[in-house]
Design brief:
The complex is a heterodimer of chains A (about 190) and B (about 525).
Chain A lengths: L1 E9 L4 H14 L3 E5 L10 E9 L13 E6 L2 H5 L5 E10 L12 H9 L3 E5 L1 H7 L6 H13 L3 H12 L4 H17 L2
Parallel strand pairs in A: 1-4, 4-5, 5-6
Antiparallel strand pairs in A: 1-3, 2-3
Helix pairs in contact in A: 1-6, 4-5, 5-7, 6-7
Chain B lengths: L3 E4 H11 L2 E6 L7 H8 L1 H5 L10 H13 L3 E7 H6 L1 H10 L5 E7 L12 H8 L3 E2 L4 H18 L3 E6 H4 L1 E5 L23 H23 L5 E3 L7 E6 L2 H9 L8 E4 L1 E2 L3 H10 L2 E5 L5 H8 L8 E2 L14 H7 L26 H13 L7 E2 L24 H12 L4 E6 H7 L1 H10 L3 E6 L18 H8 L6 E4 L6 H13 L3 E6 L4 H12 L1
Helix pairs in contact in B: 1-2, 1-8, 4-6, 11-14, 15-20, 16-18
């Protein structure tokens, strides 16, 4: 069993937190993992991605092979499309629809949505709006994660445990907000 | 012991801590920064009082590490590839003195230039200095090579380079720890000539270094990190994969065994006898390297490729530049190349940019107004977040070459008659390499305006502290800048007019002016406020 996931977003949107939670859950299962991150200059408001590889067998490359990714998990709609060369035919694109506009020539959102809907397996939803609704404004990334766990083969219990472990030091309120976001995200999954 | 999830940088740091290191030295630089950052957070390092503060630059770091090695203790100096240029003098000469306590020089290269101005390959420097080089292919090897590196450094009394690249430095995986080794006791070198490079002594030492080359190569041939799989099904190709390239090779074949003979090389000098055997057995040779064609050129220079082809970055089998990936390696070996879908045309680039609220933005807006009448082309800049001032909407700077070059290039241009000649440099960059250039300006009474953007941190690498913090005015005064021409202001929207006025006044002054816009980096401020509210 192997899961190759491209996490996508803009610097500062919290994709590494998603990677940390999934990694924690995978390690609990005794799986191996590799997680390539972006540090340095590219972090400053630029596009960022993380290659997250989870497997019950040895993993060689830190980078995912193009055409092999099982999922693009994105917190920003345009960024979800930037990594299409990595996605295999049956792969999923699961993305927040709320754009992060920090460039003057940001494309028309409807065109982006059309392109996303053109991918066979996709989930497109406004994760920011959902996070707001459940009063977990800063947990948009966890809503996105929630929407993906079914396709990744993780149970709600496994991910909840990881969220509790990882956010424990930040206090009960933050753990609870993230657990609400997880449940709201799971509801979106097919 | 449970596995730790560590970045390649962190695995190397933890390995060194467990292998009995006494001190780390370095200057932040992507992708090497996380080595020392990890040590600064490490409880183990704090309890054992391991040296872990930043140095002013890579040269001072390298020399300090050499001093610690002199006392018999184990030490590591960390830097990015271009940092090794700064440290080149002590680096090259440390190969001549050799080490007393184990001395590791960890250099992180940045192929594809994710955060750098070039993609030079540090293995060239390692070969130039004629010292052993270790190039880990995964996080576990990063950890293990700290032990092994100290071992060979102390066995041969030589510094050892550990060459990392971005993908390994910044990728996380499980690392199994070993039992810890204790630190070395303080001891002076037995040989009083060891660290003395007077020509008469140096000549002898150089002969000795040359003599040791065959020992280094023999060590590589027996290295636990090099492997030689000569038995194979198919001898139409022979493959040499170095460092990370070995992983991409394995990935390209997936679960299938590799049908060709393979040499995995992670320790240099590369073992030539084994390479010769491989070459003799196969119809053609493929060389996969993350970085420049260092080994490929070496083999061609050594007379390989006379009768059989050598494929790699030089003959175009692999792109000459940029980092490798599994797809590139598969394509080079003539395997089917996978690909998803093209990126839709509507997707636009999202280059890095100054953060919202960044003090540098205000400094640039006011500076642009002050120099408007002269047209573009008067502002020399440097390495840091503020290099993003080149991008629209600011278009404020015209050069970025190396740490400190803003001041000296502005001086050269002023010497030549360019007016105004303005340098824009960060506070940490000024501490790294700006002071000597400023002294040159003072000495010549050059007509320059030097803007030291003080955000009170080393911003681009994520907010590390630096040696000249809180001392900028005193340093400038001490170097000889006149008190009335050291100006400072708070870069903020409301102050633009006043700031432009200050710039204009100092441009009008014929001589050396220093202007210090001072406001804390918004990122470090956010982090501080978060901590404070907890």
């Amino acid at each position: 069993m192997k899961k190759d996931i491209i996490l996508a977003g803009v610097g500062g949107q919290g994709i590494l937190t998603i990677a940390t939670i999934l990694g924690h859950a995978a390690l609990k299962r005794g799986w191996q993992l590799k997680q390539a991150e972006v540090h340095g200059m590219s972090q400053r408001g630029g596009d960022v991605q993380s290659h997250l590889r989870l497997s019950d067998e040895e993993i060689h490359s830190d980078l995912i092979t193009m055409g092999d990714a099982d999922m693009i998990l994105s917190v920003e709609p345009m960024e979800s499309l930037r990594y299409l060369p990595y996605l295999h035919e049956e792969g999923w694109i699961i993305t927040n629809s709320n754009p992060f506009k920090n460039i003057p020539n940001y494309p028309n959102e409807e065109d982006l949505y059309k392109a996303i809907k053109g991918i066979k397996n996709h989930l497109l939803f406004d994760a920011d709006a959902i996070a707001k609704e459940i009063k977990a404004n800063r947990s948009m990334n966890i809503v996105v994660l929630g929407a993906a766990i079914k396709q990744l083969g993780f149970s709600e219990e496994e991910i909840s445990e990881s969220i509790k472990a990882i956010f424990a030091s930040k206090g009960e309120t933050i753990v609870e907000a993230n657990l609400r976001a997880l449940v709201a995200g799971i509801k979106l999954s097919k | 012991m449970e596995k730790m999830m560590l970045l390649g940088d962190e695995a190397l740091a933890q390995g060194a801590l467990d292998a009995g290191i006494s001190g780390f030295y370095g200057y932040p630089g992507t992708p090497s920064t996380e080595i020392i950052e990890y040590v600064q957070r490490s409880k183990q390092a704090i309890e054992d009082n391991i040296h872990r503060t930043w140095s002013s630059n890579e040269k001072t770091a390298m020399e300090t590490a050499l001093g610690m090695s002199y006392t018999g203790r184990r030490t590591m100096v960390t830097m990015k590839h271009v940092g090794l240029n700064v440290a080149a003098d002590p680096f090259m000469n440390s190969a001549m003195t050799g080490s007393h306590g184990g001395l590791l020089i960890a250099v992180a290269d940045d192929p594809s230039m994710h955060s750098s101005q070039n993609e030079q390959d540090s293995r060239f420097f390692g070969h130039f200095a004629m010292i052993p080089i270790l190039e880990p292919s995964n996080q576990q090897e990063c950890y293990d090579m700290a032990f092994y590196g100290f071992e060979i450094s102390e066995k041969f009394h030589t510094p050892v380079m550990i060459r990392l690249t971005t993908r390994l430095s910044h990728s996380r995986s499980g690392v199994q720890r070993r039992s810890r080794i204790s630190q070395n006791e303080l001891s002076k070198p037995e040989d009083i000539f060891q660290f003395m490079l007077l020509p008469a002594v140096a000549r002898k030492k150089y002969k000795n270094l040359i003599k040791m080359q065959k020992d280094f190569m023999a060590d590589s041939a027996n290295s636990p990190f090099n492997s030689f799989t000569m038995d194979a099904k198919d001898y139409s190709k022979g493959i040499i994969a170095t460092g990370l390239a070995y992983n991409y090779l394995r990935e390209a074949f997936g679960k299938d065994p590799i049908p060709y003979p393979v040499l995995k090389i992670c320790q240099y000098p590369a073992p030539m006898d084994e390479i010769r055997q491989l070459y003799d057995k196969c119809d053609e040779l493929y060389i996969l390297e993350e970085g420049m064609p260092v080994l490929e050129e070496k083999l061609i220079g050594a007379g390989f490729a006379g009768t059989k082809p050598i494929h790699g970055r030089l003959d175009g089998s692999l792109e000459r530049d940029g980092e490798l990936n599994p797809n590139k390696v598969a394509a080079a070996l003539g395997m089917p190349v996978k690909y998803g879908k093209d990126i839709p045309e509507i997707v636009t680039g999202r280059p890095p940019a100054l953060c919202v609220g960044c003090p540098h933005a205000d400094s640039f807006i006011a500076l642009n107004k002050a120099v408007e009448e002269y047209g573009r082309g008067h502002v020399f800049s440097d390495i840091g977040c503020y290099t993003l001032g080149f991008m629209p909407p600011y278009n404020a700077i015209n050069s970025c070459v190396d740490m400190g070059a803003s001041i000296t290039m502005a001086k050269g241009a002023a010497d030549s008659g360019l007016f105004p000649a303005i340098a824009v440099i960060g506070d940490s960059t000024f501490a790294h390499s700006g002071m000597t250039g400023l002294l040159d300006c003072i000495y010549d009474k050059s007509n320059v305006v030097i803007v030291i953007l003080d955000n009170s941190t080393t911003g681009m690498t994520g907010g590390q502290d630096y040696t000249a913090f809180g001392k900028l005015e005193e340093i400038c005064l001490g170097l000889g800048v006149e008190k009335e021409h050291i100006r400072s202001f708070f870069p903020f929207v409301k102050n633009h007019e006043e700031m432009t006025q200050v710039y204009k006044e100092e441009i009008a002054y014929e001589g050396v002016s220093v202007i210090i816009p001072r406001r804390e980096c918004v990122q470090t401020m956010k982090r501080r406020n978060k901590k404070g509210s907890k």
